[in-house]
Amino acid sequence: MSLNLPTPAVALAIGAHPDDVEFGCGATLAKWSAAGAVVHHLICTDGAKGSWDPSTDPAALVVTRQAEQRAAAAALGATGQCVFLGWVDGELDSGVRQRWEVAYWIRRLQPTVVLGHDPWKRYRLHPDHRHAGLLAVEGIVAARDPHFFPEQALPHHRPEALLLFEADEPDHIEDVGGYADAKLAALHAHTSQLLSTMGIDASADDAERQRAAFDERTLDGLADHGRLESVAQGEAFKLISDL
Ligand SMILES: [Zn+2]
């Protein structure tokens, strides 16, 4: 188990949907932003299926979720871009077309560290999370080698490290003491997801109690991860530094 990478100059976090990055590594991104890193978000799908309400207009939800993602990034202190690839929610593939796009953004944004879903997490149900994880891994391979996608006309780029969140076998902890509030604020910024992913019914009489319970579960998760490396609050990852 290792603790804390050096603060990267540039970090690129790749998520399947708006909100995945905040759940997976929000506190780490807040810590790095505060230390001067430029933090970018790359969101693979349009998030159009992120509602339990059959009357929700999917096109309107896409627009809402992009705004929420930008607000969440701001809550983390991130000063980089929020890039939306716009693949259909629930139907993300990790084929050559998608890999082309991820490699393009890695070459363009030149991240020191890339963060993404662990595509090898066992018993994972949601295909978008698995494919987004594969795209982070395979996008790096394409971005680092000059003979992949030469029509991009961008210099090839090899990041120094890949951190996989939701890791099947975590072996690296980022100490995020002091950044739990930023993570919570960023998660709350995904207002359209309060009910479906955070269990908060904002119209309920006890909405405040539900919100407090969600915050407590999130803080418990940071404490559980921190315990792996004897820090009060942590986010756990699989670290791949041989890129
Ligand atoms: Zn997701």
Write a structural description.
This protein is of the alpha/beta class. Helix content is 42%, strand content 18%. The chain has an 8-stranded mixed beta sheet with strand order 1-7-8-6-5-2-3-4, with helices on both faces. Strand 5 (113-117), helix 4 (127-144) and strand 6 form a beta-alpha-beta unit. Helix 1 runs parallel beside helix 2 (58-76) and helix 3 crosses helix 4. The longest helix has 21 residues, at 207-227. It is globular. The two termini are 19 Å apart. The mean pLDDT is 97. Bound molecules: zinc ion. The site of zinc ion has 4 residues, from loops.
Number of strands: 8
* Order of secondary-structure elements: EEHEHEHEHEEHHHE
**Number of helical runs?**
7
Average the pLDDT over all residues and give the rounded result.
97
Termini distance?
Answer: 19 Å
Radius of gyration: 17 Å
Query: What strand line-up does the widest sheet have?
Result: 1-7-8-6-5-2-3-4
User: Mind describing the biggest β-sheet?
Assistant: 8 strands, mixed
Strand content: 15-25%
Shape: globular
**Structural class category:** alpha/beta
Low-confidence stretches: none
As a percent range, the share of helical residues equals: 40-55%
**Bound heterogens, unique:** zinc ion
